[in-house]
Amino acid sequence: MLQLPHQPLQVAALPPQRLPAREDQDGPWHTEAVCRRDEAGLFFAPSKEPTAARLSREEAAKRVCARCPVMVECREHALLQPEPYGVWGGLTAAERRVVLARRRRREVELRKAAAAERIAAAG
Questions:
Q1: Domain segments of the chain: what residues?
Q2: Each residue of 36-54: pLDDT tens digit?
Q3: Of 37, 50, 52, 71, whose CA is between 20 and 30 Å from 107?
Q4: Phi and psi, residue 91, nearest 5°
Q5: What is the pTM of this model?
């Protein structure tokens, strides 16, 4: 783990368009999210955040996610939306893009395999 000099974290407010959805809009998992309590600013970058500060903030956010009882639901929400900013379900936006790319490749491979099986069965 990268050791950074102790610096106070710069915390940004949640962008208005990225506030967690109300329970009746998106499901009950939001009510159990640890980040709803008091640490939501960890999950979104302030403008012009230095790289070292961003990495430190993201690691702190991931530690919060690691103890969250709805981490998996949150992650799936962010992958299905897809959420372009912030840490959701223990993944940064860049990490979510990698997961989505892997899922797309897997789906293509499965479709190709299914098509090959149909051809083999018919022929």
A1: 16-122
A2: 876 778 899 888 999 999 9
A3: 71
A4: -125, 140
A5: 0.69
CA–CA separation, 52 and 37 (whole Å): 25
Residues of the chain short of pLDDT 50, as ranges, are 1-25
68 is in an annotated binding site: yes
Does residue 121 have a known ligand-binding role? no
Backbone angles phi, psi at 54, to 5 degrees: -65, -45
Closest CA to 11 of 96, 87, 75: 87
Q: How far is CA 15 from CA 38, 60, 100, 108, 116, in A?
A: 16, 19, 23, 35, 47
Retrieve residue 77's tokens.
């929400």
Does 35 belong to an annotated binding site?
yes
Q: Give the separation between CA 6 and CA 112, rounded to whole angstroms.
A: 51
